[in-house]
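Lab notebook, design round three. We kept the backbone fixed and only want residue identities now. Task for the bench partner: fill in a sequence for the structure below.
Input C-alpha coordinates:
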Protein backbone atom coordinates (compact mmCIF):
# COMPACT_ATOMS: atom_id res chain seq x y z
CA UNK A 1 0.00 0.00 0.00
CA UNK A 2 1.53 3.36 -0.92
CA UNK A 3 1.23 6.65 0.91
CA UNK A 4 -0.88 8.07 -1.89
CA UNK A 5 -3.81 5.79 -1.25
CA UNK A 6 -3.65 5.76 2.54
CA UNK A 7 -4.16 9.24 3.89
CA UNK A 8 -3.12 8.32 7.42
CA UNK A 9 -0.23 5.97 6.64
CA UNK A 10 3.07 6.72 8.26
CA UNK A 11 5.77 7.58 5.70
CA UNK A 12 7.53 4.29 5.12
CA UNK A 13 10.63 5.43 3.30
CA UNK A 14 11.91 7.98 5.77
CA UNK A 15 12.57 10.35 2.87
CA UNK A 16 9.61 12.66 3.36
CA UNK A 17 8.69 14.76 6.39
CA UNK A 18 11.10 15.74 9.16
CA UNK A 19 14.38 13.82 9.33
CA UNK A 20 14.13 10.58 11.27
CA UNK A 21 16.84 9.08 13.42
CA UNK A 22 17.71 6.80 10.53
CA UNK A 23 18.05 9.54 7.89
CA UNK A 24 20.05 11.71 10.31
CA UNK A 25 22.54 8.93 11.02
CA UNK A 26 22.69 7.73 7.45
CA UNK A 27 23.76 11.17 6.32
CA UNK A 28 26.29 11.50 9.12
CA UNK A 29 29.85 11.03 7.78
CA UNK A 30 30.99 9.43 11.05
CA UNK A 31 28.45 6.60 10.94
CA UNK A 32 29.96 3.27 9.85
CA UNK A 33 28.28 0.89 7.41
CA UNK A 34 27.42 -1.51 10.24
CA UNK A 35 25.77 1.28 12.25
CA UNK A 36 23.82 2.36 9.23
CA UNK A 37 22.54 -1.08 8.44
CA UNK A 38 21.67 -1.72 12.11
CA UNK A 39 19.71 1.52 12.24
CA UNK A 40 18.02 0.82 8.96
CA UNK A 41 16.94 -2.50 10.46
CA UNK A 42 15.67 -0.90 13.65
CA UNK A 43 13.75 1.79 11.85
CA UNK A 44 12.49 -0.36 9.00
CA UNK A 45 8.86 0.06 8.08
CA UNK A 46 6.56 -2.05 10.17
CA UNK A 47 3.96 -4.28 8.53
CA UNK A 48 0.92 -2.41 7.36
CA UNK A 49 -2.64 -3.28 8.11
CA UNK A 50 -2.99 -5.30 4.92
CA UNK A 51 0.29 -7.13 5.50
CA UNK A 52 0.02 -10.89 5.69
CA UNK A 53 1.83 -11.20 9.00
CA UNK A 54 5.19 -12.09 7.47
CA UNK A 55 7.10 -15.39 7.46
CA UNK A 56 6.96 -15.64 11.24
CA UNK A 57 3.22 -16.16 11.16
CA UNK A 58 2.24 -19.61 12.43
CA UNK A 59 -0.41 -20.98 10.12
CA UNK A 60 -2.01 -24.42 9.73
CA UNK A 61 -4.87 -23.48 7.45
CA UNK A 62 -4.41 -21.05 4.58
CA UNK A 63 -7.09 -18.49 3.71
CA UNK A 64 -8.08 -20.88 0.89
CA UNK A 65 -8.67 -23.66 3.41
CA UNK A 66 -5.59 -25.74 2.60
CA UNK A 67 -3.97 -27.61 5.44
CA UNK A 68 -0.27 -26.75 5.86
CA UNK A 69 2.30 -27.82 8.43
CA UNK A 70 4.05 -25.41 10.73
CA UNK A 71 7.85 -25.70 10.63
CA UNK A 72 7.70 -25.57 14.44
CA UNK A 73 6.99 -29.12 15.69
CA UNK A 74 5.32 -27.79 18.85
CA UNK A 75 2.37 -26.57 16.82
CA UNK A 76 0.41 -29.60 15.77
CA UNK A 77 -3.31 -29.62 15.25
CA UNK A 78 -4.28 -32.87 16.94
CA UNK A 79 -8.00 -32.40 16.41
CA UNK A 80 -10.24 -35.07 14.89
CA UNK A 81 -13.25 -34.36 12.70
CA UNK A 82 -15.83 -34.01 15.52
CA UNK A 83 -13.52 -31.54 17.27
CA UNK A 84 -13.10 -29.56 14.02
CA UNK A 85 -16.85 -29.53 13.52
CA UNK A 86 -17.32 -28.30 17.08
CA UNK A 87 -14.90 -25.46 16.45
CA UNK A 88 -16.78 -24.59 13.29
CA UNK A 89 -20.04 -24.61 15.24
CA UNK A 90 -18.57 -22.24 17.85
CA UNK A 91 -17.40 -19.85 15.15
CA UNK A 92 -20.74 -19.76 13.37
CA UNK A 93 -22.89 -19.46 16.47
CA UNK A 94 -20.91 -16.70 18.10
CA UNK A 95 -20.88 -14.73 14.86
CA UNK A 96 -24.65 -15.14 14.68
CA UNK A 97 -25.05 -13.87 18.26
CA UNK A 98 -22.78 -10.94 17.45
CA UNK A 99 -24.84 -10.01 14.38
CA UNK A 100 -28.02 -10.14 16.45
CA UNK A 101 -26.48 -7.96 19.15
CA UNK A 102 -25.49 -5.34 16.58
CA UNK A 103 -29.05 -5.37 15.24
CA UNK A 104 -30.47 -5.03 18.75
CA UNK A 105 -28.27 -2.02 19.36
CA UNK A 106 -29.44 -0.45 16.11
CA UNK A 107 -33.01 -0.95 17.25
CA UNK A 108 -32.29 0.87 20.50
CA UNK A 109 -32.31 -2.22 22.69
CA UNK A 110 -28.63 -2.06 23.70
CA UNK A 111 -26.77 1.08 24.69
CA UNK A 112 -23.69 0.02 22.71
CA UNK A 113 -22.11 -3.16 21.30
CA UNK A 114 -18.49 -4.05 20.63
CA UNK A 115 -18.53 -6.48 17.73
CA UNK A 116 -16.10 -9.42 17.46
CA UNK A 117 -16.64 -9.75 13.71
CA UNK A 118 -13.47 -11.16 12.13
CA UNK A 119 -11.95 -12.20 15.44
CA UNK A 120 -13.95 -15.38 16.00
CA UNK A 121 -11.07 -17.77 15.31
CA UNK A 122 -8.68 -15.94 17.63
CA UNK A 123 -11.23 -16.17 20.42
CA UNK A 124 -12.64 -19.64 19.85
CA UNK A 125 -9.24 -21.21 19.08
CA UNK A 126 -7.76 -19.89 22.31
CA UNK A 127 -10.93 -20.33 24.35
CA UNK A 128 -11.17 -24.01 23.42
CA UNK A 129 -7.53 -24.57 24.35
CA UNK A 130 -8.34 -23.71 27.97
CA UNK A 131 -8.97 -26.40 30.56
CA UNK A 132 -11.73 -26.09 33.15
CA UNK A 133 -9.35 -25.02 35.92
CA UNK A 134 -7.70 -22.27 33.85
CA UNK A 135 -8.80 -18.66 34.28
CA UNK A 136 -9.45 -16.06 31.58
CA UNK A 137 -9.34 -12.28 31.99
CA UNK A 138 -11.12 -10.60 29.04
CA UNK A 139 -11.47 -7.09 27.67
CA UNK A 140 -14.92 -6.04 26.43
CA UNK A 141 -14.85 -7.86 23.06
CA UNK A 142 -14.24 -11.47 24.07
CA UNK A 143 -17.72 -12.79 23.35
CA UNK A 144 -16.23 -15.87 21.69
CA UNK A 145 -14.17 -16.70 24.76
CA UNK A 146 -17.22 -16.11 26.99
CA UNK A 147 -19.08 -18.58 24.79
CA UNK A 148 -16.34 -21.19 25.23
CA UNK A 149 -16.44 -20.66 29.00
CA UNK A 150 -20.15 -21.40 29.10
CA UNK A 151 -21.38 -17.84 29.69
CA UNK A 152 -24.92 -17.38 28.31
CA UNK A 153 -24.72 -14.66 25.60
CA UNK A 154 -27.73 -13.07 27.28
CA UNK A 155 -25.47 -12.10 30.17
CA UNK A 156 -23.22 -10.21 27.77
CA UNK A 157 -26.19 -8.43 26.25
CA UNK A 158 -27.46 -7.48 29.72
CA UNK A 159 -24.22 -5.64 30.36
CA UNK A 160 -24.47 -3.70 27.09
CA UNK A 161 -28.16 -3.04 27.76
CA UNK A 162 -27.18 -1.52 31.08
CA UNK A 163 -29.26 -3.81 33.25
CA UNK A 164 -26.40 -5.61 34.92
CA UNK A 165 -22.74 -5.01 35.65
CA UNK A 166 -21.62 -8.20 33.93
CA UNK A 167 -24.16 -10.75 35.05
CA UNK A 168 -22.05 -13.87 35.25
CA UNK A 169 -20.21 -15.39 38.17
CA UNK A 170 -16.48 -15.26 37.35
CA UNK A 171 -15.77 -18.11 39.72
CA UNK A 172 -18.36 -20.36 38.15
CA UNK A 173 -17.06 -19.87 34.62
CA UNK A 174 -13.42 -19.10 35.36
CA UNK A 175 -14.05 -16.11 33.15
CA UNK A 176 -13.68 -12.74 34.78
CA UNK A 177 -15.80 -9.67 34.23
CA UNK A 178 -15.36 -7.53 31.13
CA UNK A 179 -12.81 -4.78 31.63
CA UNK A 180 -13.19 -1.47 29.85
CA UNK A 181 -10.07 0.12 31.35
CA UNK A 182 -7.58 -0.70 28.63
CA UNK A 183 -4.89 -3.12 29.76
CA UNK A 184 -5.91 -3.21 33.44
CA UNK A 185 -6.92 -6.86 33.30
CA UNK A 186 -3.39 -7.93 32.37
CA UNK A 187 -2.26 -6.93 35.87
CA UNK A 188 -5.25 -8.67 37.42
CA UNK A 189 -4.38 -11.78 35.44
CA UNK A 190 -0.75 -11.77 36.52
CA UNK A 191 -1.76 -11.24 40.15
CA UNK A 192 -4.15 -14.15 39.82
CA UNK A 193 -1.46 -16.29 38.20
CA UNK A 194 0.91 -15.51 41.09
CA UNK A 195 -1.86 -16.72 43.40
CA UNK A 196 -2.19 -19.95 41.41
CA UNK A 197 1.56 -20.42 41.86
CA UNK A 198 1.27 -19.92 45.61
CA UNK A 199 -1.58 -22.43 45.75
CA UNK A 200 0.86 -24.97 44.36
CA UNK A 201 -1.21 -25.55 41.23
CA UNK A 202 1.72 -25.30 38.80
CA UNK A 203 4.11 -28.02 37.68
CA UNK A 204 2.65 -30.84 39.78
CA UNK A 205 2.23 -33.05 36.73
CA UNK A 206 -1.46 -33.56 37.50
CA UNK A 207 -3.34 -32.46 34.36
CA UNK A 208 -6.50 -31.78 36.37
CA UNK A 209 -4.71 -29.60 38.88
CA UNK A 210 -2.06 -27.59 37.07
CA UNK A 211 -3.63 -24.31 36.00
CA UNK A 212 -2.81 -21.38 33.77
CA UNK A 213 -4.22 -17.90 33.36
CA UNK A 214 -4.85 -16.17 30.06
CA UNK A 215 -5.06 -12.41 29.68
CA UNK A 216 -6.76 -10.99 26.59
CA UNK A 217 -5.97 -7.52 25.31
CA UNK A 218 -5.74 -5.57 22.08
CA UNK A 219 -2.90 -4.11 20.04
CA UNK A 220 -3.70 -0.66 21.39
CA UNK A 221 -3.43 -1.91 24.96
CA UNK A 222 0.26 -2.68 24.41
CA UNK A 223 0.86 1.09 24.54
CA UNK A 224 -0.61 1.15 28.03
CA UNK A 225 1.77 1.13 31.01
CA UNK A 226 -0.23 -1.56 32.79
CA UNK A 227 0.62 -4.08 30.08
CA UNK A 228 4.36 -3.46 30.35
CA UNK A 229 4.10 -3.73 34.14
CA UNK A 230 2.21 -6.98 33.80
CA UNK A 231 4.97 -8.28 31.50
CA UNK A 232 7.63 -7.37 34.08
CA UNK A 233 5.82 -9.04 36.98
CA UNK A 234 5.01 -12.13 34.94
CA UNK A 235 8.62 -12.47 33.76
CA UNK A 236 10.33 -12.05 37.10
CA UNK A 237 7.89 -14.28 38.98
CA UNK A 238 7.72 -16.83 36.16
CA UNK A 239 3.93 -16.63 36.50
CA UNK A 240 1.75 -19.21 34.74
CA UNK A 241 0.16 -16.69 32.40
CA UNK A 242 -0.41 -16.45 28.66
CA UNK A 243 -0.71 -12.96 27.25
CA UNK A 244 -3.09 -13.18 24.32
CA UNK A 245 -2.95 -10.03 22.20
CA UNK A 246 -5.50 -9.79 19.42
CA UNK A 247 -3.80 -7.50 16.98
CA UNK A 248 -6.89 -6.47 15.03
CA UNK A 249 -4.80 -3.70 13.44
CA UNK A 250 -6.75 -0.85 15.01
CA UNK A 251 -7.18 0.81 18.39
CA UNK A 252 -10.36 2.68 17.54
CA UNK A 253 -8.95 4.96 14.80
CA UNK A 254 -5.26 4.45 15.58
CA UNK A 255 -3.56 1.87 13.34
CA UNK A 256 -1.23 -0.57 15.05
CA UNK A 257 1.67 0.64 12.90
CA UNK A 258 1.51 3.93 14.82
CA UNK A 259 1.82 2.13 18.13
CA UNK A 260 4.87 -0.02 17.62
CA UNK A 261 8.04 -0.01 15.51
CA UNK A 262 8.40 -3.77 15.81
CA UNK A 263 5.93 -6.64 15.47
CA UNK A 264 4.15 -6.86 18.81
CA UNK A 265 5.11 -10.45 19.59
CA UNK A 266 8.77 -9.38 19.60
CA UNK A 267 8.13 -7.22 22.64
CA UNK A 268 8.22 -10.33 24.80
CA UNK A 269 11.94 -10.80 24.12
CA UNK A 270 12.76 -7.57 25.90
CA UNK A 271 10.94 -8.76 29.00
CA UNK A 272 12.55 -12.18 28.94
CA UNK A 273 9.89 -14.59 27.76
CA UNK A 274 8.91 -16.04 24.41
CA UNK A 275 6.61 -14.37 21.94
CA UNK A 276 4.91 -15.90 18.91
CA UNK A 277 2.80 -14.50 16.11
CA UNK A 278 -0.05 -16.68 14.95
CA UNK A 279 -2.58 -16.29 12.17
CA UNK A 280 -5.50 -15.09 14.26
CA UNK A 281 -7.97 -16.03 11.52
CA UNK A 282 -6.83 -19.65 11.54
CA UNK A 283 -8.64 -21.42 14.33
CA UNK A 284 -6.40 -24.51 14.11
CA UNK A 285 -3.19 -22.55 14.44
CA UNK A 286 -4.57 -20.41 17.26
CA UNK A 287 -5.69 -23.54 19.08
CA UNK A 288 -2.31 -25.24 18.65
CA UNK A 289 -0.24 -22.22 19.65
CA UNK A 290 -2.40 -21.39 22.66
CA UNK A 291 -2.38 -25.01 23.79
CA UNK A 292 1.43 -25.07 23.69
CA UNK A 293 1.67 -21.79 25.62
CA UNK A 294 -0.88 -22.89 28.24
CA UNK A 295 0.94 -26.21 28.67
CA UNK A 296 4.21 -24.36 29.22
CA UNK A 297 2.56 -22.11 31.81
CA UNK A 298 0.95 -25.03 33.65
CA UNK A 299 4.26 -26.92 33.66
CA UNK A 300 6.07 -24.05 35.35
CA UNK A 301 7.83 -22.65 32.29
CA UNK A 302 6.37 -19.19 32.79
CA UNK A 303 4.68 -16.70 30.48
CA UNK A 304 4.29 -16.49 26.71
CA UNK A 305 3.05 -13.62 24.59
CA UNK A 306 0.84 -14.67 21.68
CA UNK A 307 0.11 -12.08 19.03
CA UNK A 308 -2.96 -13.23 17.12
CA UNK A 309 -2.71 -11.37 13.83
CA UNK A 310 -6.26 -10.59 12.81
CA UNK A 311 -8.57 -7.79 11.76
CA UNK A 312 -11.50 -5.92 13.23
CA UNK A 313 -13.99 -6.25 10.36
CA UNK A 314 -16.58 -3.99 11.93
CA UNK A 315 -16.57 -0.66 13.72
CA UNK A 316 -14.76 -0.30 17.04
CA UNK A 317 -18.19 -0.21 18.65
CA UNK A 318 -21.63 0.73 17.37
CA UNK A 319 -20.76 4.34 18.33
CA UNK A 320 -17.92 4.42 15.82
CA UNK A 321 -17.76 5.06 12.06
CA UNK A 322 -14.62 3.47 10.61
CA UNK A 323 -15.22 4.89 7.12
CA UNK A 324 -13.86 8.15 8.52
CA UNK A 325 -10.38 6.80 9.11
CA UNK A 326 -9.73 3.65 7.07
CA UNK A 327 -10.03 2.72 3.44
CA UNK A 328 -12.38 0.05 2.19
CA UNK A 329 -9.61 -1.71 0.22
CA UNK A 330 -8.25 -2.89 3.53
CA UNK A 331 -11.53 -4.51 4.41
CA UNK A 332 -11.70 -6.22 1.02
CA UNK A 333 -8.30 -7.82 1.53
CA UNK A 334 -9.20 -9.11 4.97
CA UNK A 335 -12.51 -10.48 3.72
CA UNK A 336 -10.46 -13.06 1.81
CA UNK A 337 -8.90 -14.15 5.07
CA UNK A 338 -12.22 -14.79 6.78
CA UNK A 339 -11.84 -17.33 9.60
CA UNK A 340 -15.14 -19.12 9.01
CA UNK A 341 -14.90 -19.37 5.22
CA UNK A 342 -11.50 -21.07 5.36
CA UNK A 343 -12.61 -23.75 7.83
CA UNK A 344 -15.75 -24.31 5.79
CA UNK A 345 -13.61 -24.79 2.66
CA UNK A 346 -11.35 -27.24 4.48
CA UNK A 347 -14.23 -29.30 5.88
CA UNK A 348 -16.10 -29.26 2.57
CA UNK A 349 -13.08 -30.63 0.72
CA UNK A 350 -12.26 -33.21 3.33
CA UNK A 351 -8.75 -34.32 4.24
CA UNK A 352 -8.10 -37.92 3.25
CA UNK A 353 -4.58 -37.82 4.68
CA UNK A 354 -6.07 -37.14 8.09
CA UNK A 355 -8.83 -39.65 7.73
CA UNK A 356 -11.96 -37.69 6.93
CA UNK A 357 -13.95 -37.12 3.79
CA UNK A 358 -16.06 -34.25 2.59
CA UNK A 359 -18.42 -32.76 5.15
CA UNK A 360 -21.78 -32.48 3.43
CA UNK A 361 -24.13 -29.55 2.99
CA UNK A 362 -26.54 -30.84 5.64
CA UNK A 363 -24.02 -30.10 8.40
CA UNK A 364 -23.66 -26.47 7.35
CA UNK A 365 -27.37 -25.99 6.80
CA UNK A 366 -28.30 -27.47 10.16
CA UNK A 367 -25.86 -25.09 11.78
CA UNK A 368 -27.40 -22.08 10.04
CA UNK A 369 -30.77 -23.14 11.42
CA UNK A 370 -29.33 -23.63 14.89
CA UNK A 371 -27.80 -20.15 14.68
CA UNK A 372 -31.12 -18.58 13.76
CA UNK A 373 -32.82 -20.31 16.66
CA UNK A 374 -30.13 -19.20 19.06
CA UNK A 375 -30.36 -15.61 17.83
CA UNK A 376 -34.14 -15.60 18.16
CA UNK A 377 -33.91 -16.90 21.70
CA UNK A 378 -31.22 -14.39 22.69
CA UNK A 379 -33.31 -11.57 21.19
CA UNK A 380 -36.49 -12.61 22.93
CA UNK A 381 -34.83 -13.02 26.30
CA UNK A 382 -32.97 -9.73 25.90
CA UNK A 383 -36.19 -7.81 25.32
CA UNK A 384 -37.70 -9.24 28.49
CA UNK A 385 -34.70 -8.63 30.75
CA UNK A 386 -36.08 -6.82 33.77
CA UNK A 387 -34.86 -3.32 34.53
CA UNK A 388 -33.09 -3.42 37.87
CA UNK A 389 -34.14 -1.35 40.86
CA UNK A 390 -31.78 1.67 40.57
CA UNK A 391 -30.82 1.33 44.21
CA UNK A 392 -29.20 -2.05 43.60
CA UNK A 393 -26.24 -0.24 42.06
CA UNK A 394 -25.04 0.37 45.61
CA UNK A 395 -25.20 -3.30 46.54
CA UNK A 396 -22.03 -4.55 44.95
CA UNK A 397 -19.75 -1.52 45.07
CA UNK A 398 -18.10 -2.75 48.29
CA UNK A 399 -17.98 -6.13 49.97
CA UNK A 400 -19.58 -4.68 53.14
CA UNK A 401 -21.84 -1.69 53.75
CA UNK A 402 -20.42 1.45 55.35
CA UNK A 403 -21.94 4.77 56.53
CA UNK A 404 -20.87 6.88 53.56
CA UNK A 405 -22.36 4.41 51.13
CA UNK A 406 -25.56 4.27 53.17
CA UNK A 407 -25.79 8.09 53.09
CA UNK A 408 -25.29 8.12 49.32
CA UNK A 409 -27.92 5.45 48.87
CA UNK A 410 -30.40 7.44 50.99
CA UNK A 411 -29.70 10.65 49.09
CA UNK A 412 -30.15 8.89 45.76
CA UNK A 413 -33.36 7.21 46.96
CA UNK A 414 -34.80 10.61 47.94
CA UNK A 415 -33.78 12.10 44.60
CA UNK A 416 -35.31 9.21 42.72
CA UNK A 417 -38.48 9.49 44.79
CA UNK A 418 -38.79 13.13 43.71
CA UNK A 419 -39.63 11.87 40.19
CA UNK A 420 -42.61 9.88 41.42
CA UNK A 421 -45.38 10.04 38.87
CA UNK A 422 -42.89 10.84 36.10
CA UNK A 423 -42.50 14.52 37.06
CA UNK A 424 -40.01 16.15 39.42
CA UNK A 425 -41.88 17.37 42.48
C1 LIG B 1 -7.17 3.40 30.20
C2 LIG B 1 -8.05 3.68 29.02
N1 LIG B 1 -7.70 4.61 28.11
C3 LIG B 1 -8.47 4.88 27.04
C4 LIG B 1 -9.65 4.21 26.89
C5 LIG B 1 -10.54 4.49 25.66
N2 LIG B 1 -10.48 3.35 24.74
C6 LIG B 1 -11.48 2.46 24.67
S1 LIG B 1 -11.17 1.25 23.57
C7 LIG B 1 -9.69 1.93 23.12
C8 LIG B 1 -8.83 1.29 22.06
C9 LIG B 1 -8.37 -0.09 22.41
O1 LIG B 1 -7.75 -0.68 21.31
P1 LIG B 1 -7.19 -2.13 21.37
O2 LIG B 1 -6.44 -2.36 22.63
O3 LIG B 1 -6.47 -2.37 20.11
O4 LIG B 1 -8.51 -3.06 21.46
P2 LIG B 1 -9.66 -3.25 20.38
O5 LIG B 1 -10.76 -2.28 20.75
O6 LIG B 1 -9.10 -3.02 19.05
O7 LIG B 1 -10.16 -4.65 20.59
C10 LIG B 1 -9.45 3.10 23.86
C11 LIG B 1 -8.27 3.94 23.68
C12 LIG B 1 -10.03 3.25 27.87
N3 LIG B 1 -11.14 2.56 27.80
N4 LIG B 1 -9.20 3.00 28.92
MG1 LIG C 1 -7.13 -3.29 18.38
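Proposed sequence:
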Amino acid sequence: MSDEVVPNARPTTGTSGPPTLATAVQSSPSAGAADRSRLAELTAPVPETIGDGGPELVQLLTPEGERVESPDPRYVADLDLPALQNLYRDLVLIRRVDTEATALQRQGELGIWASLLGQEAAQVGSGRALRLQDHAFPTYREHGVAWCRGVDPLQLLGLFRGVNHGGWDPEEHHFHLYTIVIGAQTLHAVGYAMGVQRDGAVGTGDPDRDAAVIAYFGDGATSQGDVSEAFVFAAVTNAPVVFFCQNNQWAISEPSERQSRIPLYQRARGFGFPGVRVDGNDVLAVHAVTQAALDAARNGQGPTLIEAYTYRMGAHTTSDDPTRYRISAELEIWKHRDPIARLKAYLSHGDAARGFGQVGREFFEALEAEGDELAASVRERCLTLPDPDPLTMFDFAYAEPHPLLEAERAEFAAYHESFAGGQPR
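Keep this in mind before ordering anything: The longest helix spans residues 81-106.
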